[in-house]
Amino acid sequence: MTHMHVAGSIHADVTTPAPVWLTRPEDVNALSDKLWSKTVKRDDEGVIQVAGIPVTDLAEQVGTPAYVIDEDDFRERAREWRNAFEGWTVFYAGKSFLSGVIARWVGEEGLNLDVCSLGELTVALRAGFDPARIGMHGNNKSEAELRLALVRGVGRIIVDSSDEITRLESLCAELDTTANVMIRVTTGVEAHTHEYIATAHEDQKFGFSITGGQALVGMFRCHHSPRLNLLGVHSHIGSQIFDTNGFEVAARRTLKLFAQFKEATGIELSELDLGGGFGIAYTKEDTPASPSELASGLREIVAHECAGFRLAVPAISIEPGRAIVGPSGMALYRVGTVKPVDVGGGLSRRYLSVDGGMSDNIRPALYAAEYSAALANRTSAAAPVVSRVVGVHCEGGDILVRDEFLPADVAVGDLLAVPAAGAYSRSMASNYNHTPRPPVVSVKDGTVSVMVRRETLDDLLALDAGLADEEA
């Protein structure tokens, strides 16, 4: 029996050096298409290259660790979502990763943009993104956030609480303007990967409860406000969702609100946002649906539920973020130490320490998220060995790739590439242990461009008032 340690699964008793889902590869050098951006391949020397650029050249030019975004791949995925959901509005979820360059790409590919903080809104506006195509999220929006959104004419504000309605009405009165709003509701549905649960998931910080009646109260309040224009309802049911099953219950419950609102007011609301959370492949075992498959399923669900409630189909919007930028990015690291560790029972796991860690990808430590990795600077004829890729930080949970088969001869100085690192790596990065955050570079047609420069120690120390007068 495996017993769970209170600190998490990494401290559990080990009965096997690899999880049951991890299969031994026939070719440890092979790259699975589902994990990598579309321009990634190995060259004749066995070096992984992206957009025609060997990662060895990238490492020499920009250093490691580094995030690498494949521009053509990002743009192609954005177009796939836009085309699959033609007639609907696709909002790119900026929280997955946002920079000035990304905002411009999103706009150029015809997508709208979802932001959820003053910082993200400011990035979008300074990048020249049309504010009418921006949606503003947040469960505790500050007066400064709302003021900027109103002054600049943000297209819609997703209202999350009665306190926010009060705050927004006051600011609209002060500025003599009105705001387009949607009510975010909690549907009681939580979906992750292939599973969804339709009960007991309203105990969270986001949105107005449907079952508690708060959602309808909030809708009526916005409807009767002279300063607010109620567009419709917004829901979000989870993350890493691979199919449309969970959306069926959520759509039914949100559209029931539409019907109740129509019965009380005689008005059919015009917009429904089904949220995001669409999944990607982090390992070869993951099987996410394509944008066209998701679009077909969601259209059928919405049409069926609207017919059941005798409603016209409203304008629908969705919010993919990870599904666009996640597979477009990789993280590049250099191996610093190689350490075999006896885990008992005659079993051994090899620890590969690299020059990054939980400060540049917190998801494995925070969510036990699984990632893959590949030896990037060469191929190898050595046997595959179960390996754990770990970072430089002073934490036992500083894990980047929990389990992966990598060649037995991986050595100090080798490069490792981690696919599907475009989403939530840089955007959730920290300066733990006073570690500067890596740069983000884009690649296209053999050219490297800096999107976000590498932080330096001087950047960090400049914030420390106690060191203001100190010199190195």
Describe the structure.
It is a single chain. With 472 residues, the chain is α/β, with parallel strands linked by helices. It has 2 domains: 21-69 and 327-452, Lyase, Ornithine Decarboxylase, Chain A, domain 1; 71-325, TIM Barrel. The protein is 27% helix and 26% strand. It has helices spanning 55-62, 71-84, 100-108, 118-126, 143-152, 162-175, 214-224, 245-265, 291-308, 322-325, 363-367, 457-461; strands at 41-42, 48-50, 53-54, 66-70, 89-93, 112-115, 134-136, 156-159, 179-186, 190-193, 195-197, 208-209, 228-234, 238-241, 271-276, 315-319, 329-344, 347-354, 374-375, 384-390, 399-407, 415-419, 440-444, 447-452. Strands 4, 17, 18, 19, 20, 21, 22, 23 and 24 form a 9-stranded mixed sheet that branches. Helix 9 links the parallel strand 15 and strand 16 (315-319). Helix 8 (245-265) packs parallel to helix 9 (291-308). The chain is globular and about 70 Å long. It starts with 40 loop residues before the first strand and ends in an 11-residue tail after the last helix. Mean pLDDT is 92; it is low at 1-15.
